Amino acid sequence: SQLHRAKLLFERYPLIEQAYKLSRKLSAIFSNCTAKIIAFKKLALWYNEVEDSGLKVFRTVARSIETHHQSILNYFNNRSTNAAAESFNAKIKAFRAAARGVRDINFFLFRLANIYA
Fold it and tell me: Could you list the mean pLDDT of each consecutive 10-residue stretch along the chain, which spans 117 residues?
């Protein structure tokens, strides 16, 4: 079973267990917190755990969260993300790559609006 395999893996590689627990705690914050204030406190505690762990990969994540914490905490207001905008931006980039060399910008924008409108 997965539980047995995880137990064996964590016994032999305690850093993997530590990284797994940190990732699950961060996931739990985003899954379970409904209030911005509570999420802020839990993210601060998680950040302290990352600093204590010494894992460089998680320090990078923690620094990104620290830098953008106001924007990240806005997620907890109504639990919405900018995933739709990012997806649309990727579609535009793919369309632009497929239409390389287009000289008529107005026609390019017209086609883009017709396809994705």
Answer: 93 94 94 91 94 89 89 85 84 81 81 79
Among candidate residues 93, 81, 76, the one with its CA nearest the CA of residue 42: 76
Domain-wise residue ranges, the chain: 2-78, 83-116
Q: Is the whole model's pTM more than 0.85, yes or no? A: no
Residue 49: strand, helix, or coil: helix
Structural contact between residues 42 and 33, judged by C-beta atoms closer than 8 angstroms: yes
Closest by alpha carbon to 51, among 62, 42, 41, 38? 62
What percent of the residues of the chain are helix, what percent strand, and what percent coil, each to the nearest 5? 85, 0, 15
Answer for the pair 81, 75: CB distance below 8 angstroms, yes or no.
yes
Contact between 91 and 71 under an 8 Å Cβ cutoff? The reply is no
What amino acid occupies position 92? I
Give me the residue label for tokens 């839990």.
42
Angle at 80 between CA 79 and CA 81, to 5 degrees: 130
